[in-house]
Amino acid sequence: MISLDLQGHKALITGASGGLGGAIAKTLAKAGAHVAVHYRKGQIEADAVVSAITAQGGLAHTFQADLSDPKAAAQLIQDVEAALGGLDILVNNAGMDGVHALVGDDNPDLWEKVVAVDLFGPYYCARAALSHMEKSQRGVIINITSVHEFIPWEGYSAYTSAKAGLSMLTKTLAQESADKGIRVVAVAPGAIQTSINRPVWSNPESLKDLNEKIAMGRMGKPEEIANAVAFLASDLASYITGTTLAVDGGMLIYPEFRHGG
Q1: Active-site choice (124, 159, 239, 254)
Q2: Where are the domains of the chain?
Q3: Residue 39 among the catalytic residues
Q4: CATH 3.40.50.720 fits 10-248, yes or no
Q5: Which of 149, 173, 203, 219 has its CA 20 to 30 A from that of 243?
C-alpha cells in the first residue's frame, strides 16, 4: 500500500488564511506535517484554519507578514524555523490578481504591487528558506503559479507576467539547488471554486462560459490543488524538480478544438 506521509515535516504555506492556501495547510497537516499558516490580512480566517487543523489532531500556528517586504519575508522564515524547529516545505501561495486594466490605461504603481506580491514575495521567501534547507540537505519549495503562466489574460498583464516569471524562477532555483537535496516545483491551478471568484461561479451564464473552457467541464475544488501539492511535497515525488504541474481540468488542452480547428 502506498501512503503519502509527511510526518515530522515542517511546512510553511503563505497566504493560508483561506481559499487555496487554507486547503493546502489542512491537507499537509492531515498528512502529518507541522504547519505554519501565514497571512497578511485576515487573522480571524487564519485562526480558523489553525483551529480546524488542531481539531483533527494536527499541529499548526499562525504567522503574519507582508511578503512584498524583503525584511519581513526573511523574518517570517526565521520565525517559522525557530517555532517549528526547522523548515522542510515552503509553499509560496500568497498572491493577488490586481485590478483589471489594459496596458496604457493601468496604474504603474498597482502593476508593480502585483508583481511585488506574486513574484518578489516568493523570491524573498525562497531565498531565505534555501539557507535553512541547505543546512539539512533536504527541502521542497512549491510555487503556486496559474494556468496564466501559459495563457495570456486581457487586462491582467501584471498577474500573467508575474506568474510566468515565477515559473522561470522555479526552474532556475531547481537547477541551482538540485545538488543540495532541494527540489523546487510549481503547481498551476486552473479555475478553482473559491470565495474570491464567487461572482463567476454563482452566475449561471458566466459559469457556463467558464466550464466550456475546461475539458472536464467543471471548476476545480481547492482540495484538488491541495492534494497535488501534498504529493509534490512528499517522497512520492522525490525525482520531480524544475517543472510545473498543471491542475486545471484540461484547460490547457484547448477543449474548444475537440470539434475542429
Answers
A1: 159
A2: 10-248
A3: no
A4: yes
A5: 219
